[in-house]
Design goal:
Elements (H helix, E strand, L loop, with lengths): L2 H7 L5 H10 L1 E6 L5 E7 L4 H20 L8 E6 H4 L4 H16 L4 E3 L4 E8 L2 E11 L3 E8 L6
Antiparallel strand pairs: 1-2, 3-7, 4-5, 5-6, 6-7
């Protein structure tokens, strides 16, 4: 576990969070990509739906911080974690990697809280309210965020 995570558990105001975390620990099977069980080890499963909602709120807050206005009506903030990106078709993932992720990784990183959180962001040249975000928590959990305009009916 990351030292910064352990430090956060030592905060007396986080005793409830620590208790919930400790209750969630159980034996988890470590499996190869081919599905072969290697061993069991202590671990926990995160509620990714809940975590993505939190990351979505962070993107909305960062959007306001950088743009100085709310996300326009009808726009949405979409969040993808590393596992959900793997479900994308290979050609789409390849396109996003080349046209969005690689240029985004070349931008300056913004870091907060001694490396607890860092992010990169960029605006679409034709629509500065359409944005892309790479968020990194504890130098371990990474998310891709996007603010997108409403879909037009054809």
């Amino acid at each position: 576990m990351q030292p910064v995570v352990l430090r956060s558990f030592s905060n007396p105001n986080k005793s409830g969070m620590l208790g919930e975390f400790l209750k969630s620990i159980r034996l988890i099977e470590q499996v190869t990509p081919a599905g072969i069980i290697i061993k069991s080890k202590l671990g926990f499963e995160a509620d990714m739906v809940r975590i993505r909602r939190v990351v979505q709120r962070i993107v909305i807050g960062l959007f306001w911080n950088h743009r100085q206005h709310r996300i326009p009506a009808g726009y949405d903030a979409l969040i993808f974690n590393e596992e959900s990106l793997q479900e994308w078709p290979a050609d789409v993932l390849d396109y996003v990697t080349k046209t969005i992720l690689q240029p985004l990784l070349a931008t300056n990183v913004q870091t907060r809280g001694n490396g607890v959180f860092s992010y990169r962001f960029a605006y679409h040249p034709a629509d500065p309210d359409s944005t892309w975000w790479i968020l990194d928590f504890y130098e371990r959990a990474r998310f891709l965020g996007q603010t997108v305009p409403p879909v037009k009916n054809i």
